[in-house]
Amino acid sequence: MSAVAGDSKVATKQRLIEAAEMLFADEGFDRVSVRDITNKAGANVAAVNYHFGSREGLVAVVMARYINPVTEERLARLDALERRSAGKPLAIEEILEAFIRPFTTQVRRSELSEKLFFKLMGRMFGQQGCELPPLVESLFITMATRFQKAFARSLPGMPADEIWWRMHLMSGAMIHTMAHSDKVQRMSGGEAGNPTTEQTLSRFIRFSAAGMRQGAEEIEAGGEDKPKGPQVEFPF
């Protein structure tokens, strides 16, 4: 195979990935066909099977390109915080910052616009039936477990199941915020303003910290050993 032919195949593969990213972000994973992707990429339908094995293989590549860097940065930020704290519990806001901030740093490295990046990330985590590829899921579970332990050290006495549920609910709110931030502006008739990404991040951390801490003071004071209220799974 000549160098020119090799370069052409690499270029086609990259065009397919970039076309898939934009279409998945705009329309969702279940509404985009292989033909939609190849038409946008200027490639033939067989190119998806040639480069990725199947449509699912292309989906897995797109997910890994976006989720794994966020997961790795989350772990790196938590590592740095824990080294600096020398074994002392971290502030809840610091843990949340390490969990959420990577989205804002990774969006700057993406060829997608900020709006499309956040819509794509929201769809990856929030769209029903959109399963994480095994290698993506394995790293994600490692990261989630590390963060659960960090929250547990900072919320002594809080039951492990309660922390997991609060992380689940917080993540659901984050997914909704990323994928549908434009809706609050329409619903409010403009009263919600047009906050910057940093303002939204700050607002979300304050909101999530309050939820993570709810009932923690009573536990530390020797009151109820579990926070009051039902544990309900919301269909994010």
From TrEMBL:
Signal peptide: none annotated. SUPFAM superfamilies: Homeodomain-like, Tetracyclin repressor-like, C-terminal domain. Residues 10-70 form the HTH tetR-type domain. Residues 33-52 bind DNA. Keywords: DNA-binding, Transcription, Transcription regulation. It comes from the Bacteria. Pfam families: TetR_C_30, TetR_N. The keyword Signal does not apply. This is TetR family transcriptional regulator.
